[in-house]
Amino acid sequence: MNAEEAAALLAHCSGFDNRQPSLAAAKSWAAALHDVPFDEDARAAVASYYTTPPQNPNERLWILPHHVRTLRTKIRNARLENFQYEPVPDETVGEYLARLRGQVKAIASGNATAPTGRLALEGGPSKKFQAELEARGWEVGRPVADTDEEAVQAELIDTVRRSGPLGIECPTCHAAIGKPCKTPGGTSKQPLGKTRTKPHSARLRVANGESELTPEQRAAEEHRRREASARYLAQHPEEIPDAEIVDEEAAS
């Protein structure tokens, strides 16, 4: 941009801010914008600057050369958002660079039509990576939900289908699929009504494909747990709450 072109650009600015262009201002703007051509994008940059209101309503907008440079670059970059290079067979590196610069310049200047659609990713995961995903209960290639409601439903389906103890209903506490186990009794680590940090043993066995315990085995397991509870209470008598004596006659 030379001084004459800068003067024309300043005259365009004066239509917005009523400035009084001068020869000194034109030379200064030409020096600051020596590598920026005076084209429609430069004029559009000025219009874009005055289209946006200032942060302070009492502040007066006053465009400067760096505003023209920045906004002109944004206008041109917006046309290149979906740009994809169109190669030719057997081109050399020099031909590639020349063609690339030519295509970028043509689209950025608006002389060529910019692509309208976004590029779609093609291909898929490797067989090894796909096997790892499927081993963890994920379905490869499933459709992606378009709405939040569909996404929640898909998440619930994934939760139900996942492998492990939570993928089945607990035979002991009957916790639903995807829900953690609960304990019927209360301890310092697992109070009544709280979820268990680990699933019940029966749930783990079923998830691992092991057979369920026989009635004799269940009775032995229950007996073992009762003895363990009795030993714990014997070692910690202070945790046993005092019994509350109720006078039945007074209560009646």
From TrEMBL:
Basic and acidic residues bias (residue ranges): 218-229
Domain DNA-binding phage zinc finger residues, every copy: 162-217
Sequence segments annotated as region (Disordered): 180-252
Acidic residues composition-biased segments: 240-252
Domain of life: Bacteria
InterPro entries from the UniProt entry: Phage_Znf_bind_put
Name of the protein in question: DNA-binding phage zinc finger domain-containing protein
Native organism: Streptomyces griseosporeus
